[in-house]
Design goal:
The complex is a heterotrimer of chains A (285), B (229) and C (248). Chain A is mostly helical and 285 residues long. In chain A, 74% of the residues lie in helices and 1% in strands. In chain A, a hairpin with a 4-residue loop joins strand 1 and strand 2 (55-56). The longest helix of chain A is centred in the N-terminal third of the chain and has 34 residues, at 3-36. With 229 residues, chain B is mostly helical. In chain B, helix 5 packs antiparallel against helix 6. Chain B is elongated, with a radius of gyration of 19 Å. Chain C is α/β, with parallel strands linked by helices and 248 residues long. Chain C has one domain: Rossmann fold (3-Layer(aba) Sandwich). Chain C is built from 10 helices and 10 strands. A 6-stranded mixed beta sheet of chain C has the order 6-7-8-3-9-10, with helices on both faces. In chain C, strands 2-1-4-5 form a 4-stranded antiparallel beta sheet, with helices on one face. The radius of gyration of chain C is 18 Å and the shape is globular. The chains are: A mainly alpha (285), B mainly alpha (229), C alpha/beta (248). Chains in contact: A-C, B-C. Chains A and C meet through helix 7 and helix 8 of A and helix 2, helix 3 and helix 6 of C.
Amino acid sequence: MNKESSQRTAFIIFRILGIIVVSILLWILGFIIYNGMGVISWEFLTAAPAEGMTAGGIFPAIVGTLCLVAGSMIFAFPVGVMSAIYTNEYAGNGWIVKFIRVMTNNLGSIPSIVFGLFGMSLFVNTLGFGDSILAGSLTLGLLALPIVIRTTEEALKAVPSSYRTGSRALGASKLQTISRVILPAAFPNITTGLILSIGRVSGETAPILFTVAAYFLPKLPTGIFDQVMALPYHLYVIATSGTDIEASRPVAYGTALVLIAIVLLMNLLAAFLRRHFSNKWRAER
Amino acid sequence: MKHTEREMQSLREEVRQMWKQVLSQLEKAKQSFLNNDVELALEIISREKRVDAFELKIDSDCENYIALYSPVAVDLRLVLSLIKISSTLERIGDFAAGIARHVIDDGCNKAETVLIEELQIEKMFDTLTGMLSDGFVALESENTRISGKILAKDAEVDEIYNNAIDVLTNCLTANPASIRYGLKLLLVIRKLERIGDHCSNIIEEIVFYVDAKVLKHNGRKGDENRIVD
Amino acid sequence: MIEAKNIDFYYGSFHALKNISMTMEAHTVTAFIGPSGCGKSTFLRLFNRMNDLIDGIRLTGECLVQGANIYGKSVQVDELRKTVGMVFQKPNPFPKSIFENVAYGLRVNNLGDKKFIAQQVEESLIAAALWDEVKDKLKKSAFELSGGQQQRLCIARALAVSPAVLLMDEPASALDPISTSKIEELIHQLKKDYTIVIVTHNMQQAARVSDKTGFFMLGELVEFSETKKMFLNPEKKQTQNYITGRFG
């Protein structure tokens, strides 16, 4: 086969595969929207579940998920960003850093149920937080940590080293260099890490199973030691072990749709932020 | 060899050709003057144009070399000295042709052998061709050790020139009839003396090129001790 | 003004600079030339201790700037870098506005109030021959400038903290000829207020801008003399071979 036709064939294969992937995605999305759209109403979004979770709304679950996402990010984001700064900017390239990197990557590939069990034994029992937003947020935060660290490290690596030398040559200290030049320059890419981890966290069921999620709790939390409902767990419950699985099926589709919409919205928001910041001081590349 | 070096070689080759040409012009001028050979004199005059053409060619090649290769250090010194050497050689060629014109002109053909000998004109010619060919060797070998010897020869030429005035005064006082002839002769001797100065200039350029020393205007009696950086 | 005494410098076991001594007078331009990897940039970076950022270096000998040993125990490196500014090979403005780029050195060193900073930024941009081109867009990103303008911005940035010495590491090698000649012209003007040391690969540039030139090879200072002398009649055969292109 000559160069031209082999190239054409390759491109055709790539294009077909791409179209297949996208259409599967669209099909799933369409399926959920088609089935879930019917139950979406103002009441569905703002009321508590009723009649054995076959009617009413999912408001407590929405609030619960938002609380957990926020809580886990409050924990994972600063810790992750700071440890990435440490490994990338301060620690040099010794065996300790290499070890930390390997462990971080391993942490990322641990099944989420293990996080759930770990969170239960450490936060719920040993530290005595009980089933609470705090315990759930910390567990989810642990889950998100490797993603935040990895993406932040990549973001810091992408900052040209000429910024560092340029800043140091002007008499700036290392910390000044990081806070005034490196972090602002890496910010758009760090935001990407944040989005990815939010997506991951808001969809997880296993880690919250033993640490926070309530089977049915039609009221809003009042503090960080309260239990909450969460969208993924609620979905799991009404799809597998509800009082009347057949009757609650439309509610399940509606819940799935809301969950997807929340993740999508957060993605859009982050993409907007990212574009806003990178447009302001358009990078060289 | 790099292409810049090849350019430089061809530039040097042109100067070498011009040098040989001028040297042969000078030798022919001697022959034609001493033998009153008008034929040869005419030949010298006709060849004068070729010397001029060499100068133009070398000038423009040197300009190009500087413009294109921005020479520095020894290369820069060589190009600069080649420019000056070629224009000096051209002047020497002019003088040779000037002497040839004297031969053609009526005045000189009744040469009195005794007077010519007394004026040491032949020795002057020989010293000058010696200077010129020594200079050629110095450039070729990039060796300036003989520069002192060459500059000393210029002093000899100057001495002959200075003597010539006395000799001519004596002779012409005795023979007022040949005053015109005598004056013409003096002009020839004067030209030869100038050729000597030009030969000195050439060797000074070669010293500048090889040793980066400036000899000019430092008293040119060939005294090496007076050579200053 | 700047003095190096018997400098030996090692990257790990690599002997990068071998027993180098030289003196640079105030208000002169000194150029370093030499083949890649000859140590000229390493030597330049000694004077604002930029080599400190690299692991596994070792230095013996003395390095004096304005009479003080800059490798002395009591020396504050960040203070030193205010006195000895640096411009790099590739223009490296920060992803900030033009104004903030120039103000950066002042801000990190807590120099002056808002008014002083504004005035200093303007003066630095004027000194770097950039003011007229940017005075109406100080709040725009530095990346909107052309490469040559960016490099002059970096020079202004270095000037803003009022250094005495300006080190330039091949400041024009990434620029087009017109920008290059602007930088060279600027070097000529800055000479009266600053002591300038420039590393360059372009020998003609060294010849055009500098008063004295040092030729480095394999970590040694082969020759250090007046630029005029260097380019008309270098003392060492090695220098001659290098500057006339007969190297190697």
